[in-house]
């Protein structure tokens, strides 16, 4: 089964996004923007909108475990943080370097020099045309690991990027938009979308509109399988790359558009919960219990 992802090819020398906040970046004790973008700022920084983390393309059993970043074939793929290469080449999903049909194609995995809450962190770079590193090689942030391509289960050049926590496993991914430092002046919307009876709404389409520019955004909540929520936010939807400012958030429910105005702050997460007819709540989750009296 092949997936098709449209590729945006920027004009030569075009500046698509401002520089990122420095890493690590966290204005809250529960945030973890530890990684730099794996694609240069001269290319679009936003994931392909309809196939973000947790997105479904063909059916409920085909869930996306990363984000797809548009870039032309041959563009540099950059290490998102310092660490050691633990995989380089074909076979990342299957574990066999002889499996030429591996869905990740040519891929690199890096175990980073830092972890999170005592667990190791890994990043994955997939569908590459060329791999320029070897297993055991140490890399710094921004070092070139290879070139964008379309190998594996895809027909369009782009970079598939994953963050894995605890183990270098397909089943241990987290949403990269909660780990890549935002661009300066941009923020991230994070939410948990549920029914009136607090049942998680999977693959549910929500809408956002800038009150300053009238630009409209849409994103689906996570599918029901494979993906993992953040331990603190317990989210099922994330929309990053939002310029700071006022927005109208709209979640259709019960044949009505449930709208509310929100504020996206630079370098920060705006968090909400939605529970059907009960509407919106912008209270942050409680701090996790530490077990210390």
What are the salient characteristics of this protein?
293 residues; mainly beta; Glucose Permease (Domain IIA); Immunoglobulin-like; 2 domains; four-stranded mixed beta sheet; 37% strand; disordered N terminus
Q: Supply the number of helical segments.
A: 0
Which stretches are low in confidence, meaning pLDDT under 50 for 5 or more residues running? 1-14
Q: Label the structural class.
A: mainly beta
CATH architecture title of the largest domain: Distorted Sandwich
Order of helices and strands: EEEEEEEEEEEEEEEEE
- The termini sit apart by 53 Å
Describe this structure in words.
It contains no helices and 17 strands. It is an all-beta fold and 293 residues long. It folds into two domains: 49-178, Glucose Permease (Domain IIA); 186-281, Immunoglobulin-like (Sandwich). A hairpin with a 4-residue loop joins strand 16 (269-275) and strand 17. It starts with 66 loop residues before the first strand and ends in a 12-residue tail after the last strand. 41% of the residues are buried. Mean pLDDT is 89; it is low at 1-14.
In terms of topology, how is this protein built?
Layout: E1 67-70, E2 76-78, E3 83-89, E4 106-116, E5 119-131, E6 138-139, E7 144-148, E8 158-165, E9 173-174, E10 186-194, E11 205-210, E12 216-220, E13 237-243, E14 245-253, E15 256-264, E16 269-275, E17 280-281
Parallel strand pairs: 10-16
Antiparallel strand pairs: 1-8, 2-7, 3-4, 3-6, 4-5, 5-7, 5-8, 8-9, 10-13, 11-12, 11-14, 14-15, 16-17
């Amino acid at each position: 089964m092949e997936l098709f992802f449209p590729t945006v090819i920027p004009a030569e020398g075009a500046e698509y996004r401002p520089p990122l906040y420095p890493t690590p970046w966290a204005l809250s004790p529960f945030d973890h923007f530890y990684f730099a973008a794996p694609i240069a700022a001269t290319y679009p920084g936003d994931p392909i909108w309809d196939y973000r983390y947790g997105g479904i393309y063909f059916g409920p059993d085909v869930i996306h475990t990363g984000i797809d970043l548009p870039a032309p074939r041959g563009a540099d793929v950059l290490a998102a943080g310092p660490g050691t290469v633990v995989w380089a080449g074909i076979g990342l999903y299957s574990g066999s370097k002889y499996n030429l049909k591996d869905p990740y194609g040519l891929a690199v995995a890096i175990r980073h020099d830092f972890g999170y809450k005592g667990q190791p962190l890994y990043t994955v770079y997939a569908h590459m045309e060329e791999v320029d590193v070897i297993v055991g090689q140490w890399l710094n942030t921004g070092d070139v690991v290879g070139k964008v391509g379309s190998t594996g289960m895809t027909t369009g050049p782009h970079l598939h990027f994953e963050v894995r926590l605890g183990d270098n496993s397909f089943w241990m991914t987290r949403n990269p938009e909660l780990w890549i430092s935002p661009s300066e002046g941009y923020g991230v919307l994070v939410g948990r979308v549920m029914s009136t009876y607090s049942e998680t709404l999977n693959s549910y389409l929500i809408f956002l509109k800038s009150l300053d520019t009238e630009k409209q955004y849409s994103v689906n909540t996570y599918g029901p399988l494979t993906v993992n929520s953040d331990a603190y936010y317990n989210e099922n939807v994330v929309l990053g790359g939002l310029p700071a400012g006022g927005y109208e958030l709209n979640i259709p429910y019960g044949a009505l558009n449930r709208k509310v105005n929100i504020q996206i702050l630079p370098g920060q997460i705006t968090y909400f919960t939605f529970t059907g007819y009960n509407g919106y709540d912008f209270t942050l989750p409680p701090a996790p219990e530490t077990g210390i009296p």
